[in-house]
Design goal:
6-stranded mixed β-sheet, alpha/beta, 449 residues, 21 strands
């Protein structure tokens, strides 16, 4: 592979420019900004840069960009990515303009550069470099690039059901990946699932003067009382049946937890915290991070929160909640259990609006794709990777992979301070170039499995 690696080194400036071009498109799905331009840009990259057979596949929302590059053997490896990004707010906290892809001291800053355009472009560049040096690919490559990941992949089920022939592959490289503070590459073998909802509690049909609080119920207080029934101070979710389908850790899971390197001190320092939740540390901390389901308040809205005082009794209160789920929890069962829980505690009036539902997905440690990615990571980084049995995060992995019997593994070009979904999102260019080499290595080695 040294010939391919040298080509990547010789053309790294070109590959960096490719990434800058894509990052300069403000493809914000939540605001329908730049989405058509981004989809067309990715479609053209797949067609023109790597001679892919491309389609722009319509869904009920933003289209899926699909590309296929035939190889010399029947084996197929797919790449899942997305071309949409999070909104850039709050703008005042950015030190570099979010859609100019500026480079400073070997780091590129842009919204979406880590999540997920850097990974997408690293894969396109890897295929390009391999083709330029070796001619044909040793296996068939498929690209599945959606435009709604940042808003819950709300139409990916539709795509998955209608296009099973396009999805089929022997393995899938998932969208994300990061390096730890000590420089070790993370390799993730799965993702948590999620039930994401909005709770709405309504009171009077208008905001009132707060003098009426003596006789009119405040929906904000009622929402707080409802939230207090969901979880205790020890972080135990009190919804009946919530933990019934949580799998016990396997021997491989326990071993992975022992070997998993989690940079506790660096993470606390980065976040300006003195301790983790429940004062956890060591193996207990890692086990909870990877294998514990959660119940999280993502946002609360009610009444007046502007500058100064306004004595108001709000007409309603809204709360966004996410439940991160582990195998074999089912998001629809959790939604039903939440409804039953609120009703049981006298909160039948609180509405539940379903927003995102995703099942957890997981790939075995001994799957050929897992072994290939781990080995390739060792080869490129010269360090043992941190193998994550599952990522603490969530994505539509089950819909595209496990549902169709396709193993999936995540690896990418981010770092532990990439600031995904936050101001000053970034990647290190050295990691980006290594990421291109890593994917080229996976292409070569997985064809032999």
């Amino acid at each position: 592979m040294q010939d391919v690696y040298q080509y990547i080194e010789d053309h790294k400036d070109e590959y960096i420019e490719w990434l800058q071009e894509l990052c300069r498109i403000p493809s914000v799905a939540a605001q329908n900004r730049g989405m058509e331009e981004a989809a067309e840009h990715v479609l053209n990259d797949l067609a023109q840069k790597i001679n892919g057979e491309t389609q722009l596949i319509s869904t009920s929302g933003f289209p899926v960009v699909y590309g296929k590059v035939p190889g010399t053997h029947d084996k197929t490896l797919s790449f899942y990515n997305h071309y949409d990004v999070q909104p850039e707010d709050p703008m005042e906290l950015w030190e570099h303009p979010p859609f100019e892809a500026e480079i400073q001291d070997g780091t590129m800053y842009a919204r979406g550069v880590a999540d997920n355009k850097g990974n997408l472009m690293a894969r396109i560049a890897a295929v390009h470099a391999y083709q330029q040096v070796r001619g044909e690919l040793p296996l068939t490559i498929k690209f599945i690039v959606e435009g709604e990941e940042e808003i819950g992949s709300i139409n990916l089920d539709e795509f998955s059901d209608k296009h099973t022939d396009l999805i089929q592959a022997d393995g899938c490289i998932w969208e994300f990946g990061y390096r730890n503070a000590d420089g070790r590459q993370q390799v993730s073998l799965g993702v948590k699932g999620m039930t994401y909802v909005e709770l709405v509690c309504k009171g009077a049909n208008t905001d009132l003067h707060s003098a009426n609080a003596a006789v009119i119920e405040n929906p904000a207080w009622r929402m707080i009382w409802a939230l207090n029934t969901l979880k205790d101070k020890n972080e135990h979710v009190k919804i009946d049946g919530f933990y019934d389908r949580v799998q016990s850790l396997s021997r491989n899971d326990e071993e992975a937890i022992r070997e998993l390197i989690y940079s506790e001190n660096e993470m606390l320092e980065q976040l300006d915290l003195s301790s983790f939740l429940l004062n956890l540390e060591g193996e207990d901390l890692k086990e909870r991070l990877i294998f514990a389901p959660t119940c999280t308040i993502c946002g609360i809205e009610s009444g007046y929160t502007g500058e100064g005082a306004k004595t108001v009794l709000p007409l309603e209160a809204k709360v966004k909640l996410d439940f991160r789920l582990v195998p074999d929890q089912d998001p629809h069962e959790i939604l039903k259990a939440l409804r039953n829980h609120l009703d049981k505690h006298g909160f039948e009036d609180i509405e539940i609006h379903e927003m995102a539902m995703e099942k957890p997905g997981k790939t075995p440690y001994n799957d050929p794709l897992s072994e290939t990615v781990i080995s390739a990571t060792q080869k490129i980084t010269k360090m043992e990777p941190t193998v994550m049995p599952m990522s603490p995060g969530t994505g539509p992995m089950y819909v595209l992979c496990q549902k169709h019997g396709i193993p999936s593994v995540s690896v990418g070009v981010g770092n532990f301070q990439s600031n995904n979904h936050a101001p000053n999102e970034n990647i290190h260019l050295e990691d980006y170039i290594d990421g291109i080499k890593l994917i080229a290595t996976v292409i070569e080695d997985y064809a032999k499995k």
